[in-house]
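User: quick one, fold this
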Amino acid sequence: MNNYNTLDHHEGMVWISKLFKTENRGNICVLLNGEFQVLAYVSPDMLETRDLDTVVADIVAANGTSYKLQTNLITCSICGITYDETLVNIVDYPDDVCKHCEKNYLDEQ
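Assistant:
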């Protein structure tokens, strides 16, 4: 199962299996709407001639989702959807709240 306990944050919305540290293999996932979705499984032979960063970038690009490596994306703590950082308020509240959830968040406070 892919979750916060089995994955490490890589970059942007991309997470990688903690197995890479010990077994040089594992899943490449993206965090979308609060759920981890597997993009690919990486086996040790895929890393024989390329480093992990290159393999991850190639997999993300092959899926047509290179933007998911951008580091200026933030996930709303309320709805779990990932947005550009300009659409999420990370300053005024203890939670990261997107513009869509902000009104309801204020009403509940």
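User: anything notable?
Assistant: The helical segments are 19-22, 52-62, 102-108.
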